[in-house]
Hints:
Number of strands: 4
Helix content: under 10%
Radius of gyration: 15 Å
Number of domains: 1
Structural class: mainly beta
Distance between the termini: 6 Å
Strand order of the largest sheet: 2-1-4-3
Low-confidence stretches: none
Shape: elongated
Strand content: 25-35%
Amino acid sequence: MERQQILYLWLAEGALDTPTIGWAFHDGAKGQGPSLPATEPPYATGLGALEDGWFLIQSARPPQPDLGDGHGISYLPNEFVFERRITID
């Protein structure tokens, strides 16, 4: 049976080779597939996830800041979404 795992990486900038500053992992295999570390970033960069077999399904769109909004707070803008499918018994 095939299950999906989703990995969100927030990178320091909009390029895949920049450092990971945040992440979230969602496991549709309910722990029956490969796991990722919970207390440190699973990959130093987005490129590391690609090299480990993750598929990039959504990349960050360039931020469009509003004039005078240089000090506002918002979501992390450099979000990349990765997927891998695993087979479980």
